[in-house]
Design brief:
Elements lengths: L6 H15 L19 H14 L4 E5 L21 E5 L10 H11 L2 H4 L10 H6 L9 E11 L10 H15 L4 E11 L5 E2 L2 H11 L7 E8 L6 E2 L15 E4 L12 H9 L81 H14 L22
Parallel strand pairs: 3-4, 3-6, 5-6, 6-8
Antiparallel strand pairs: 1-2, 7-8
Length: 392
């Protein structure tokens, strides 16, 4: 809705639009607050229709209407944040264990990428800016501050993780990031709060973070607690989000009992990747975008720097769950996905071991652009990356 319209005319246009579009939308009490560049109501309806038409057997798209009123408490298992669309997975094997995109999805889908001709959220998404930040032998190590909040019951029992779990997890995280000249200097604390020991809604997440986050502008906050549904392992906050440096930013991780957090879990590396500016490697696929979306990354594209996950050294891919080639086709083009990077930390594979040079460049660029307040003084140089980056 154009904010420059007279109030009466604006209200009339909105009412007429809702009456016309009512058959397209399911009933909902959800409120949408689009940001700058948001699409019109008519465009939103067209997007919803396109999504429904392009849905696959695994993903079902549901449109929501634009209504006034308060934001409702949305169950984690049904939706991301209050949204125009939410997805229902029809098969347990494709449940989203990472909730980062689902949480940001309403904002992303409200952006008019077609009008802008771009799929970018800030200067670091420009490949020239990214490439200027690529990590090399002479790149100084960037040390980021972090704090781990381990949630326990009011009496201190049933902590979501032990000290050994935290130490082992952060040692593994640094093993993953240090080859790319990023490391984390962390502190931790146990927070006695039974009301936050099992999270079932996004409102609980926000209440927990607002109650306990300390200095979110100065360090990455990682909250470890129980999450229901248990298959949801973690949710990170993108650096371009308004919440990135606020109390409601940071990361929430499922507890050690779920297997999501601890010395043998690679999930936190994935969620930190989101916080430092990385998309899923399958961001340009129908898993997250409808066919025909301007940011869709088709098989064989030469525009990988500008679409999908904005890194041309990660090939177009669908969701990779296994540890080998993806034996599926792109439902939009009908072509096989071909060579994919199933070892990438930002995939859904169980065998994630590496980032790519361009992903590292994106992380450094976003740190410089948005997250400088998390950075400690320069650290001694580390050896250049030795992790293989050839696609498997």
């Amino acid at each position: 809705m154009n904010k420059n319209l007279p109030p009466l005319l604006a209200a009339t246009v909105l009412l007429l639009a809702l009456l016309v579009l009512q058959p397209l939308f399911a009933e909902s009490d959800l409120e949408i607050t689009p940001g700058a560049g948001a699409v019109s109501v008519a465009t939103a309806a067209a997007d919803a229709g396109a999504m429904l038409e392009s849905s696959t057997d695994l993903v079902e798209w549901h449109p929501y209407t634009l209504l006034t009123g308060g934001v409702v408490d949305v169950p984690l298992g049904e939706a991301g944040r209050p949204a125009r669309y939410f997805r229902v997975n029809r098969s347990p094997e494709v449940d989203d264990w990472c909730g980062a995109f689902s949480a940001f999805e309403p904002t992303f889908l409200a952006q008019d990428a077609a009008a802008n001709g771009l799929c970018l959220n800030g200067p670091p998404d420009d490949p020239a800016v990214r490439d200027a930040a690529l990590a090399g032998a002479a790149t100084p190590v960037t040390t980021l501050r972090a704090h781990i909040y381990v949630i326990a019951e009011d009496d201190g029992s049933n902590a979501a993780a032990t000290i050994a779990d935290v130490e082992g997890q952060m040692e593994l995280v640094n093993d993953h990031f240090e080859p790319w000249k990023i490391r984390f200097d962390y502190t931790s604390s146990v927070v006695n709060d039974s009301s936050s020991r099992l999270i079932t809604t996004y409102r609980q997440i926000e209440e927990m973070k607002e109650a306990h986050a300390s200095d979110p502008d100065g360090r990455l906050g990682v909250f470890v607690t129980g999450i229901d549904p248990r298959e949801l392992r973690g949710i990170g906050t993108f650096p371009w989000s308004e919440e990135a440096l606020a109390a409601t930013g940071g990361i929430i991780m499922n507890d050690t009992q779920s297997g999501a957090f601890g010395p043998n879990s690679i999930t936190l590396t994935h969620e930190i990747g989101h916080c430092l500016g990385l998309w899923h490697t399958h961001h340009g696929s129908p898993r997250e975008l409808p066919c025909g979306h301007p940011c869709y990354e088709p098989v064989g594209t030469t525009q990988g720097d500008w679409v999908g996950d904005l890194a041309s050294d990660t090939p177009p891919t669908g969701v990779s769950w296994g540890c080998g080639p993806l034996a599926e086709i792109d439902p939009c083009s009908g072509l096989p996905w071909g060579e994919i990077d199933h070892l990438n930390h930002m995939s859904y594979s169980r065998c994630r071991t590496r980032f790519t040079p361009q992903q590292a460049g994106r992380m450094h660029a976003w740190i410089d652009h948005r997250l400088r307040s998390w950075v400690e003084e320069q650290s001694p140089e580390l050896a250049p990356p030795t992790i293989p980056v050839a696609r498997s």
